[in-house]
Amino acid sequence: MTTKIKQLKRIDLIFNHEDDCKEILKKSFDRTNEEVINEMVNSGLKGRGGAGFPTGLKWKLTAEVKDSPKYVICNADEGEPGTFKDREILTRVPHKVLAGMAMCAKIIGSRQGYIYLRGEYKFLVPQLREELRKFHQIMDELNLDFEVDIFLGSGAYICGEESALFESMEGKRGEPRNKPPFPTECGYLNKPTVINNVETLAHSYTIMKYGAKKFRELGVKDSWGSKVFSVSGDTPIPGIYELELGMSVQDFVDDFGDGDTKAVQVGGASGFLVPRKRFAKSHIGYQGKLTGVSLPTGGSMMIFNSSRSMYNVLDNYLDFFQEESCGQCTPCRVGCQQLLKGIKAVKRGEKPAAYLDKLLKLTDTMRLTAKCGLGQSVANSFSSIVENFREEMIY
Amino acid sequence: MSNTINLSINGIAVSVEEGKTILEAAQKLHINIPTLCYHKDLCIAGNCRVCVVEQAGVDRLVASCATPVSEGMEINTNSLKVRNCRKHIIELLLAEHNEECTKCYRNGHCELQSIAADLQITNPDFIDLVPDKNYSIDSYSPSIEKDDSKCIRCQRCVRTCAEIQSVGAIAVAHKGAEMKISTFFNQPLNEVVCTNCGQCIVHCPTGALVEKSYVEQVWDAIADPEKHVVVQTAPAVRVGLGEELGFEAGTRVTSRMVAALRRLGFDSVLDTDFTADLTIMEEGTELLMRLKAALFDDNPDVALPMATSCSPGWVKYIEHKYPQYLPNLSTCKSPQQMFGALAKTYYAKNIDVNPANIVSVSIMPCTAKKYEANRPEMKDSGFKDVDFVLTTRELAVMIKQAGIEFDQLNEENYDSIMGIGSGAGVIFGATGGVMEAALRTAYEIVTGREVPFNNLEIKPVRGLAGVKEAVVLIENVRPEWNFLEGVELKCAITNGLENAHQLMEAIERGDRYYHFIEIMACPGGCLGGGGQPFPVDNEIRQKRMDAIYSEDLSLTLRKSHENPEITQIYEEFLGKPLSHKSHELLHTSYVKRQPY
Predict the structure, then answer these.
(1) Of B325, B318, B328, whose CA–CA distance to B195 is shortest?
(2) Domain identity same for A240 and A125
(3) Is residue A383 part of a domain?
(4) A237 shares its domain with A117
(5) How confident is the model over B370-381, as pLDDT tens digits?
(6) β-pair type (B137-138, B144-147)
(7) Is residue A121 pLDDT above 80, yes or no?
(8) Could you identify which of A145, A251, A297, B246 might form a hypothetical disulfide with A267, taking C-beta atoms 3.0 to 4.6 angstroms apart as the criterion?
(9) Are A159 and A226 in the same domain?
(10) Last residue of some domain: A189, A215, A241?
(11) How confident is the model at residue B596 (pLDDT cuts 50, 70, 90)?
(12) Which residues of chain A make contact with B85, given a CB cutoff of 8 A?
């Protein structure tokens, strides 16, 4: 991972080969829970799976719930198309992820943790088991009664949605639950649960080691820190890169594009497509949609050059969604099928171009009414592609 | 203890208990929010999204059935955003739905159709998805037809089968566009653990699950001059039928129903209550014999508790799930099948008709009865004992087809013989009824006195509770029943197979010991059966139950053993309970089945 990039600063916090977990954990265990929570809250760390919920707050809320047992779950069901950074983190620095889980466990009072590992990452199990053996030894030495086990998923995209993940772990069909209640009070086995993305947990280790202040030297307001990106598509240098949050898509394209970049899909199939004309105004981060230009991502950055058909790209996403929707709620199950069949019908001339506007309205309904994030976010790629590349949809 | 939450819906203030949902709060204000996946009997799914409403300060819409109220919440159930989304959602469901409404059994009773009509969806935008789906209809079961092309994936049936019935014959399979409600390995319903109870049908909002109809076959039989068509009516039908024909839930329509059946052209209109009374004689005697074997003969092999066998859904359930308890099941056939066996023997002889020309039809609140009539054992008369079973709903269809103005009919009485039933027979229609009827007779046989309950009303066994228990102290017995002196007869009653499951587990663990258990497959007993009118919930079940007990009270004949036709049939035909003839015609055997 020594590929040079021209102008963006490469950060080396996640993947550096620090192996001082025991020491860092001991340091954090010596502090009061309140101090550690404050450190986390002050760091401004937000969930790196893509949804961006403040991590410190999540821990705090779960710590406050008076119920037991409580669980810490590492969401390693990395299934978003174009995302492959969690695999790398678990391969290279799994001890940091486990350290993050232990810190969380100490604070909320949990004795059992799980790594929900994507089925396709089964090959990681032997090395993770070895890592867990070492981890449990450290837990013994530090006198923390906390054990972590691996739960292997079976390949459904939807099980990365936290409540569907709980259902899956409970041996049920992976379908998202109604919210509220939220996992902080009613998660795995209906008990208070912290569920964090792999990278989020690794960052919490960094924060413990270097402090919130240092973490906030990176990034921009409301999007502090660094982020691991999975860069793919039409780029000469695909791979995993840790970069500061807040960069503009233009800066990103300048470094990673092949000189002919037409668009960048930020956040995978459920994210947004940014066309060339918006590169300069679009930033990567969590500032919230009020600014209209900030795009959260679980780390997937797919680069398309001018040889790519945006129709094919969208067709591919929709085919993915109509298969990976759990199928329980109407807007998502039927909506995805309608969008896919709809763009095909327009392309074949069976429906007029104006039908695209009806489909855009449908994605509005899906965003407003779908039961979980999957159905709600189909609108993101659909509207950003159809609105920016309408002619490619028709001709 | 619970707190009150104040909120406003469409600008109207309302206070409800903490933990209630927005939907419940709206209902309190008489604001109707359309729902599909929601059913009062079931846990919340929140998957159809039809009930979405707008909450001030929240960008997305929230599902009112699944969202608890919170202090100061401002809800709009009819904003532009809500209306547009709701309409879209119904359009999406229609795009996936086989819209042959005029050919559908549920036409006029379909919840999807009704909401679509309210929303005036006249020009839907979306592409019809049905042609590409290669749907097929599963019509292999004698009781239930499943048509996936009409399924809206609300999972009410799945939740019913799992939560109320603890059967799990149907479940969700596949995901995304392929997601469907399926059976174990997609086997037809007749080859899986399905008990044919039909609760999935009464909980289905559309025509995806319906009973297998035999209306045309019955019309054909009526039209055939060679055939003598007899009809029997189950106790619970008389308190449900009215709902399909313009009457309030809980209206007793017994004598109008008799008049209607005569107008439909049945040659003889008879009453399953008669064989309910006969069941009491046989089953009550069987119980006493088992108690004698256990308590007097010290026979270690006698199976107690004895379990009732009137409910064919329960019978199939125990055959699948608890085959080790089959010896506990009473060997008595259900009243329907006793009636069938007698119709083509005793009755045929009595009216001097060749039994080969008798067509025996039963009107049942039940879909499992269709299956029961088709069991291979049920041919002891030398013919198929019951030829066709119609549900309460199918009878209503026939009455409508015949142009009968039901509310204008004069009240008429059943024909005889096999037309007289006691109040004890009537209460078979409610959970606890068989137990109460059996106790009225058995107690009197043993002690010579009436059961020690005011007005013969054995209140502890009544009501909609899932599991009921009763203990009856037997004392001052007649000499021949000396071994029962001082015995506390322990009884349990359950309704809904999940409750049966709980009871059987308690018995299996040894936590509970009983002499006699009554188990009905459906919630509330037969009055809540899978063949009863739509819709159903506990309020409606309670009304039907009240009607059953008021029918019992209205009769002078309230004990099975006092039914003069019962005395007559034992004198003329059967001899005595558990006689050789009885065993031949009125008793049956059971088979062990696979647990899935």
Answers:
(1) B318
(2) no
(3) yes
(4) no
(5) 999 999 999 999
(6) antiparallel
(7) yes
(8) A297
(9) no
(10) A215
(11) confident
(12) 365, 368-369
Range of the domain at A270: 219-305
A1 in any annotated domain: no
Nearest chain A CA: its distance from B46 CA (Å): 7
Domain boundary among A305, A320, A343: A305
pLDDT value of residue A1:
47
CATH of B93-211, one of 3.30.70.20, 2.60.40.3090, 3.20.20.150, 3.30.830.10: 3.30.70.20
Are both A194 and A300 inside the same structural domain? no
Domain of A340, CATH number, reads: 1.20.1440.230
| 3 state DSSP class of B127 | coil
Mutate to test the interface with A, among B47, B67, B90, B170 (most CBs of A within 10 A): B47
CATH of domain B215-274+336-408: 3.40.50.1780
Q: Is B65 a catalytic residue?
A: no
What pLDDT score was predicted for residue A2? 55
pLDDT digits (tens, 9 = 90+) for B227-263: 999 999 999 999 999 999 999 999 999 999 999 999 9
Is B319 an active-site residue? no
Domain count, chain A: 3
Q: Which residues of B touch A (CB under 8 A)?
A: 44-50, 52, 59-61, 63, 66-68, 81, 84-85, 88-89, 92-93, 95-96, 125-127, 129, 152-153, 155, 171-172, 174-179
Residue B93, min C-alpha distance to chain A (Å)? 7
Whether A9 is covered by a domain: the verdict is no
Contact B176 A180 (CB under 8 A): no
pLDDT at A4 over 80: no
Percent of chain B with pLDDT over 70: 100
Mutation target to probe the B interface, by most B beta carbons within 10 A, among A157, A168, A178, A324 is A178
Among A369, A371, A377, A378, pick the best mutation site for testing chain B contact (most B Cβ within 10 A). Answer: A369
Question: Does the residue A11 lie in any domain?
Answer: no
Q: Catalytic residue at B554? A: no
Structure tokens at A231: 């860069």
Mean pLDDT of B477-490: 95
Q: A378 — contact with chain B (CB < 8 Å)?
A: no
**A236 & A121 share domain:** no
Domain harbouring A274, CATH code? 3.10.20.600
State the DSSP string of A239-271.
EEEEEETT-BHHHHHHHH--S-EEEEEESGGGS
A209 with A109, same domain? yes
| Helices of type H across B301-367 | 312-321, 335-342, 348-351
- Among A194, A193, A195, A212, which residue's Cα sits nearest to residue A203? A212
In A198-238 the beta strands, taken as DSSP E runs, fall at 219-220, 223-224, 226-233
In chain B, the N- to C-terminal Cα span, in Å, equals 44
Q: Does A373 touch chain B (CB under 8 A)?
A: no
DSSP string, A293-330: -EE--SSEEEEEETTS-HHHHHHHHHHHHHHHS-S-SH
Q: Give the nearest partner residue to B49 out of A323, A358, A371, using CB atoms.
A: A371
Q: Encode pLDDT of A162-181 as tens digits.
A: 999 999 999 999 999 999 99
Q: What is the ipTM of this complex?
A: 0.94
CA dihedral B97, B98, B104, B106 (to 10 degrees): 0
Nearest CA in chain B to A365: B85
Domain locations along chain B: 4-78, 93-211, 215-274+336-408
Give pLDDT tens digits for B83-122. Answer: 999 999 999 999 999 999 999 999 999 999 999 999 998 8
A356 to chain B, any CB pair closer than 8 A? The answer is: no
| Tally of residues, chain A | 395
- A173 and A49 assigned to the same domain: yes
What is d(CA B270, CA B419) in angstroms, rounded to the nearest whole number? 4
In this model, does residue A3 exceed pLDDT 70?
Answer: no
Residues A315 and A272 in one domain: no
| Mean pLDDT value of segment B279-307 | 95
* One-letter amino acid for residue B518 of the chain: E
Q: Which CATH architecture has domain B4-78?
A: Roll (3.10)
Neighbours of A1 (CB within 10 A): 11
A325 in contact with B, Cβ within 8 Å: yes
